[in-house]
Description:
Number of helices: 12
Radius of gyration: 24 Å
Mean pLDDT: 85
Structural class: mainly alpha
Helix content: over 70%
Amino acid sequence: MTTTTTPASAPTTPDAVHAPLEGSPGIPFRRLLEVERRKIVDTRSGAWLLGITALLTALTLAVMLIWGESDGLGFMGLLSVATMPLSLLLPILGILTATTEWSQRTALVTFTLEPRRGRVVVAKLLAVVRLSLTVLVLTIVASALFYLASTTVRDGPADWSYEPAVVAKLLLLLTIYLVQGLAFGLLFLNTPAAIVTSLLLPVVFTVATTIVVALERFTPWVDLLVASEPLMAGSMGGTEWAHLGTASLLWLGLPFAVGTWRVLTKEIA
Length: 269
């Protein structure tokens, strides 16, 4: 009589099922950072927003050099003017960095490939910080080209003086804009809600502190727009840095912390 032996079935306990994954290498953080960087420019909305930002910056430089009071402005003054459009559009780019996955329903793919959601949030943060450096470098190049063309056509004296401290402050300002957008995007995880709130809430807050006289003395401590004005003017002192730090904690740190908690705990449909 022939007997057949049935192989023992594999254990189906949860520990046994997940045992082969234990100790397996995860996604390298450098690769994760590169993926998050590419997400900023690979989407149609991100590419269009970057294009519009570049166009507005170029138009601002052209208008300033052709019709503005550019005499005695100098290269560093022109660079400071070129960063003005960035203050409006870069926060939106930061918002899209956080919300695109949830609006396009690709968060499930992202967190399946990398279940440690905190690493994804950190990668997004470093990606926007690196983007601010890239944007500043491109703005410097564009400002130099426009200024060179202007001085060549007008055949006048050129002021090419370079101030590293001013450039560092501009980099800090661009980083604040991008991180603020990222923080609001993480907080709402919804693109329209984050954009409307990030644009409307600071204006409402500024109007409220202007109307209520008793709140005026607290405005530099809690209003990021007011706190960042000395940074643009290059007149930062100890008190001004304290104002900027406190306002940044309110408008960047708090929404970023709450938004990170939402990402770590939110159910993915």
